[in-house]
């Protein structure tokens, strides 16, 4: 006997209306979670008539108030913290300007096709990730559920980064900046701060109060707990009504970072050493292109910058009308994303070039003092040519005994970090050197907050849209469900407010899994619905055999990444702020990471 789900409208319209969740076995013996669109007489996405007609999805679904709102939401989600603190580092480490070659190739072969597929699926079916995959085939419903789970993990740890930005933002109103000077104990500077740096000490000891290892929590840090509560409160009020509330915020969060970047750009290019920083950044090292890890880093950056496989792009697309030209949207967002990453790199390394130049000047002054002390220089006021002549006259014994510092601009620039190290240590140290440093600190961390909140809106929207694919949740007001989700995430996120919080965050962040199964089933042999809406054939990305070039490439990269980096990188180290070195690894942490990879 065949069981049929009647299209009974729910008691409340929250923008996610859909037929009930059917978990019963079908009469043909096929088992699985089945979601049918309402009304029930519409054909599933797997059935196509001769004319290529496909169902238009839920006509009662919430929709964007305008094209600009949709575009800014996608930009806010895609252009995130990785464009600021990861892409510049990857350029520096992977061949400078030569890294743009694999990045652009991966953008074309991998990023744009997968971006188009995810956005197109959501737009065509007007469903979230769970509804889309169930409509493609009931057996693929687990992909939507797993996407929701992974998105939950990402939302939990991503908001911790926003929490740290809030903490630094509040401290930016102090003068002098708290990370500009070492704290004093009994009238003298703390020894640990003197051996490392003021910014590193403030990050590891004042902000995180880092524990010696991951198995020593060190208790909750109340200042981080309060900032975490503030972060989740802000996020809740932004997303509590879906795009009706978040759609208003996106007019600020994606645009403000560009204003700040432009201000920093104008200031940065006028600073001494900015040109040296840019030359170091973009001088191409073509031989690096022969290393497989360079191409892997480029592909990984494309994945992260677009936010693929989280279900958020499907959710954003589902609020469009089926006749929207999603191909044009994808191309515009892709170009904007790439330009933003390159533009941010110019700004970052212009400022870091200034910092490196000042570091070299201080280093030379220290060496001049040593030379003058041993009567090799008449005074410390001599020019650099005389200093270099005196340094060249030294033998190896004198160099070792007198402990000269190596004053190299290249070494100073090569010490740039990525992620939190760049934002909270390296760049904050550069900000300290700028006149009016509190003003620049406020601008910088406001920009990071805007970028972080913009991405967090998209992450949560993808997860909440998936939750509302399940009929039972459509009977509950969306603010209530959103409040429960935010409260749960806050509770789990408390683990990141302990002394071992950063170790846990790295474990959450570094290990993820890729699901790229079933996209060919959604579009058949010729990507018919995109042709139906745009009147263009896009077979260069979606060939006739039904396999996207981007999907195939993503599968290969996921396998290579898990083999090359997964098990070998599944190591958690403790960190000594004074030596900046790894101390020991936690074997139980390796097992945890392996479980995350397998899942």
From TrEMBL:
GO biological process: amino acid import across plasma membrane
Subcellular location per the Swiss-Prot or TrEMBL entry: Membrane
Region (Disordered): 1-52
Record InterPro entries: Na/ntran_symport, SNS_sf
GO molecular function: amino acid:sodium symporter activity; glycine transmembrane transporter activity; L-amino acid transmembrane transporter activity; metal ion binding
Entry GO terms, CC: plasma membrane
SUPFAM superfamilies hit by this protein: SNF-like (SSF161070)
Primary localization: membrane
Residue ranges crossing the lipid bilayer per the database entry: 70-87, 99-119, 139-170, 222-243, 255-282, 302-319, 331-352, 439-468, 480-505
Pfam families in UniProt: SNF
Any coiled-coil regions, as ranges: none
Membrane topology: Multi-pass membrane protein
Residues reported in the UniProt entry to bind Na(+): 76, 79, 83, 305, 337, 451, 455
Keywords of this entry: Membrane, Metal-binding, Sodium, Symport, Transmembrane, Transmembrane helix, Transport
Organism superkingdom: Eukaryota
UniProt similarity note: Belongs to the sodium:neurotransmitter symporter (SNF) (TC 2.A.22) family.
Name of the protein: Transporter
């Amino acid at each position: 006997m065949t069981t049929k789900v009647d299209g009974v409208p729910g008691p409340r319209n929250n923008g996610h209306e859909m037929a009930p969740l059917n978990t019963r076995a079908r009469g043909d013996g096929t088992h699985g979670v089945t979601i049918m669109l309402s009304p029930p007489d519409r054909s599933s996405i797997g059935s196509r008539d001769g004319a290529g007609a496909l169902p238009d999805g839920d006509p009662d679904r919430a929709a964007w108030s305008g094209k600009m709102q949709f575009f800014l939401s996608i930009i806010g989600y895609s252009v995130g913290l990785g464009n600021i603190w990861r892409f510049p580092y990857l350029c520096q480490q992977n061949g400078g300007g030569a890294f743009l070659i694999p990045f652009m190739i991966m953008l074309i072969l991998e990023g744009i096709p997968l971006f188009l597929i995810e956005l197109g699926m959501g737009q065509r079916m007007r469903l979230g990730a769970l509804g889309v995959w169930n409509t493609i085939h009931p057996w693929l419903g687990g992909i939507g559920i797993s996407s929701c789970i992974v998105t939950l993990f990402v939302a939990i740890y991503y908001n911790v980064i926003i929490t740290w930005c809030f903490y630094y933002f509040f401290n930016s109103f102090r003068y002098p900046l708290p990370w500009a000077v070492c704290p004093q104990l009994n009238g003298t500077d703390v020894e640990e701060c003197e051996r490392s740096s003021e910014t590193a000490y403030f990050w590891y000891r004042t902000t995180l109060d880092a524990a010696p290892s991951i198995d020593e929590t060190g208790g909750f840090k109340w200042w981080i707990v309060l900032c975490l509560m503030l972060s989740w409160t802000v996020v809740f009020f932004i997303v509590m009504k879906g795009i009706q509330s978040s759609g208003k915020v996106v007019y600020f969060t994606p645009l403000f970072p560009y204003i700040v970047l432009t201000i920093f750009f104008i200031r940065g290019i006028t600073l001494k050493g900015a040109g040296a920083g840019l030359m170091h950044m973009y001088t191409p090292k073509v031989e690096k292109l022969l290393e497989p890890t360079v191409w892997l880093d480029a592909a990984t950056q494309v994945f992260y910058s677009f936010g693929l496989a989280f279900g958020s792009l499907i959710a954003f697309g589902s609020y469009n009308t089926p006749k929207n030209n999603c191909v044009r949207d994808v191309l515009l967002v892709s170009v904007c994303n790439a330009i933003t990453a390159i533009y941010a790199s110019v700004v970052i390394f212009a400022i870091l070039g200034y910092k490196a130049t000042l570091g070299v000047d201080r280093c030379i002054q220290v060496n001049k003092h040593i030379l003058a002390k041993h009567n090799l220089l008449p005074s410390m006021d001599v020019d650099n040519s005389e200093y270099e002549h005196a340094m060249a006259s030294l033998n190896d014994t004198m160099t070792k005994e007198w402990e000269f510092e190596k004053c190299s601009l290249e070494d100073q620039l090569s010490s740039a970090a990525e992620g939190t190290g760049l934002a909270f240590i390296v760049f904050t140290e550069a900000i300290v050197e700028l006149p009016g440093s509190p003003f620049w600190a406020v601008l910088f961390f406001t920009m990071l907050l805007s970028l972080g909140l913009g991405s967090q809106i998209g992450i949560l929207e993808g997860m909440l849209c998936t939750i509302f694919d399940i009929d039972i949740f459509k009977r509950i007001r969306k603010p209530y469900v959103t409040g429960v989700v935010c409260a749960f995430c806050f509770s789990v996120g408390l683990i990141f407010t302990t002394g071992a919080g950063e170790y846990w965050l790295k474990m959450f962040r570094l290990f993820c899994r890729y699901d790229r199964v079933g996209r060919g089933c959604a579009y058949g042999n010729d990507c018919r619905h995109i042709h139906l809406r745009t009147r263009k054939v896009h077979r260069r990305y979606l060939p006739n055999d039904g396999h996207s070039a981007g999907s195939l490439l993503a599968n290969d990269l996921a396998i290579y990444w898990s083999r090359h980096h997964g098990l070998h990188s599944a190591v958690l180290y403790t960190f000594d702020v004074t030596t900046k070195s790894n101390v020991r690894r936690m074997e139980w942490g390796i097992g945890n990471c392996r479980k995350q990879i397998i899942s």
